């Protein structure tokens, strides 16, 4: 049985449809990334999986428990860790007091081990914590009872780059130990490093469900360079360059072709400055799925993957 | 079991200690003040007041220590002050955690919403019980210290019977805590509502046509002064308060189970 199974899930808040009939499954042992810009419906979906929100239509099961069935979900929660996007801790309590409380309710067999990797100052009251420290405390509580499934909403936001890297490595190791990880992000580079598969959510709709490799291959790189006028015209014509934009001293495009071909082409021009980076998520949507209309018509097929 | 209650009570220890010391100090002041008074003069003033006012402010037998305590402490501080305090304190129980996003973490626990609510609410028993026990004992000690006498059973009954009343006030706050999204609004509404209920009971007492409205107010079912003065009370009143408390608790559980967080 799939670890998470979401079927035709819809959530409306009043007249606003936050999530529109999405379906996907997350298999056991998988790291699944839930990708989308802010406001796409990621948090709504995650909170519904934990029974915080009642679906307007459709169903979802987590570790076999129907989210409509509180008793079944409570049993499943013994094996679930959760790291919300906004961490609300008792500001006056110390980190250790909060962890003691969590341990008394759900167990904490891995607490000490986790506190060696993630190092919030547990003896200090939480009101003195930085965002990163709060996030680390959140990560510790999410994993301390050694759950089978960990659901995380933007797990690395607020962590410094070094800790983000440690977290990514930790997440991969957890996956190798057989855990299922489900997490949302709006940072593609994070998702690509950790996830096996991603679901892409946009404006409440699931617009893609792919292996990370497929996504990245087709997502391409953003190339931005400063060059002479002649070169600009030539580069616009490179095969695999999309969404070409010229500006005062250079050109920018998304390159989805083969890297060697790009480098060979660039070598023949006078390149003064170059930057090759991950394209922003919005650009991936644009180029991977085409224009908005194409997304609409593509959706039916893609979501069945 | 009761991990949440234990944790939440731990967070209430300091507030409870401050409140208990504060109330005890006020009692000490009132008792000391009584020792300076000429009781008969007060009794004369009381006789000149209209009966409705005597009722509203619990001023029967104001010339005796029992009547004095009933009027100065139990009718105001206990009935109104603590009623408002417990409504306020429990109005934050759920609303504060939802507003601060802490509820997300608590509901990821393998615990039902019903139990979480009940356990969190149970933490208000700490101030409730310690105020009654400590202030009751302090009051008795002080009264004896100034050379007066008070029936310890009457005093104990006044405290014991205040518990169902204060539970109802707390449960009113709890319902608001579940229904209202913003903690500040829930807390203010709880304070306002308990105050209005107290006022209603006091104000319509004299108007016969509207006397039935009194029945809606929890203050109608707990009158500390007669308990202190001659130990008279109706157990049915306490039973009504307990039933109302349980009813409100169940309502808040049902509402909490159904709502989106």
Protein traits:
heterodimer; A: 305 residues; alpha/beta; Rossmann fold; Alpha-Beta Plaits; four-stranded antiparallel sheet; 29% strand; globular; disordered C terminus; B: 261 residues; mainly alpha; 11 helices; 77% helix
Describe this structure in words.
The complex is a heterodimer of chains A (305) and B (261). Chain A has helices at residues 42-49, 70-77, 95-106, 111-117, 131-143, 161-176, 188-194, 212-219, 229-236, 259-267, 281-289, 292-303; strands at residues 4-13, 16-26, 31-35, 57-62, 65-66, 80-83, 149-153, 180-185, 197-202, 205-211, 221-227, 241-247, 250-255, 271-277. Chain A has 305 residues and is an alpha/beta fold. Chain A has a six-stranded mixed beta sheet with strand order 6-7-8-3-9-10, sandwiched between helices. A four-stranded antiparallel beta sheet of chain A has the order 2-1-4-5. The longest helix of chain A has 16 residues, at 161-176. Mean pLDDT of chain A is 84; it is low at 291-305. Chain B has 261 residues and is mainly α. Chain B contains eleven helices and no strands. Chain B has helices at residues 3-36, 39-48, 51-56, 65-99, 102-106, 113-122, 125-145, 152-179, 183-204, 224-230, 235-258. The relative contact order of chain B is 0.15. The model of chain B has no long low-confidence stretch (mean pLDDT 88). Chains A and B meet through helix 2, strand 6 and helix 3 of A and helix 1 and helix 5 of B.
Quick description:
The complex is a heterodimer of chains A (305) and B (261). Chain A is an alpha/beta fold and 305 residues long. Chain A has helices at 42-49, 70-77, 95-106, 111-117, 131-143, 161-176, 188-194, 212-219, 229-236, 259-267, 281-289, 292-303, and strands at 4-13, 16-26, 31-35, 57-62, 65-66, 80-83, 149-153, 180-185, 197-202, 205-211, 221-227, 241-247, 250-255, 271-277.
